[in-house]
Amino acid sequence: MHPELRALVELQAIDDRIAALKRELVAIPGRVESENRLLKSFEDSVAEAQKAVESVKKRQRDTEREIQSTEQKLREARGKQALVKTNDEFRALSSEIAQLEGQVGSLEDAALEIMESLPAAEKRLAEEKGEMDRAKGQVQGAVSRHKAEGERLEKSLQTLLIERQTVAAAVSSPWQERYERFYKGRGGLAVCPIIEQTCQGCRMSETLQRFFEIRDSEDTIFTCSNCGRIIFYKVATNNVAEYQGLLLGLGQALEFGASEVEVVTDSELLARQWSGEYRVRHPELKELYGKAKEAARRFERVVVRHVRRGENVAADAAANRAIDSAPGA
Description:
- The chain is α/β, with parallel strands linked by helices.
- It has helices spanning 3-80, 87-168, 173-185, 208-216, 238-255, 268-275, 283-296, 313-324, and strands at 191-195, 198-199, 222-223, 230-233, 260-265, 301-306.
- The strands form 2 sheets. Strands 2-1-4-3 form a 4-stranded mixed β-sheet. Strands 5-6 form a two-stranded parallel ribbon.
- It starts with a helix and ends in a 5-residue tail after the last helix.
């Protein structure tokens, strides 16, 4: 492989890792804010419970003052009984006294009810404070972990940026400019393999003669005749091709503005690895799997569904017709 081409392949791998790190870093403040919002909800509950306790105590104080005021009025009314001169005055004063006595009784009942409600309010406040204290410890721990993760990511990012400078120095300005333009404009895929005459970026075929030139050359860098991406020859297994097809499909769905994607595949391995039922062990598949998962995060929902090969005949035929009809096929 041409030395500059090898550097370009490595540069894209570094840029993919840099992009992933930046996404993680951007997510850190949101995670910290989420933890703080959780703590705030507990603090609000404590404040509400505290307000309830203070409200009960205020009602208790107000009722006791009203009892004292009414009892004072009752004492004054009783003191006037010896001074009345007529029966009418006596009856009116007796009626007033009876009303005041009734008010005192009602107020004392209300005061007792308020007093009995205070322990429940105080108990709730204590429980809310306990919940808040426990949450505070958990939130502080989580925030510390997020911040530590942010520092680790930032350190890794700086290391990668230095590594990128070293790798980029091995690429001439024209190829760097082309790489940067395509990496930004083609969804992070500026350099891609050509497998069995087919560019894995646009899925279009090169002529057989040009394919052999790409395969056999060690001193020339080639670009795809259709999409313009930088291409290199690579022998790939079917599993690698399946993941490359998945990446291409997700990229095109993103260009179409889709928010949800359903992938129907006859690759049982891909479907089971995607669902987590099978682990991804092969290094090359692991890298492609990671890229596909990163791409999937840009959608609201991505479903990968397995069908038997016999149920996928129409899709295979359509893909083959598209390849056969491509320019240069």
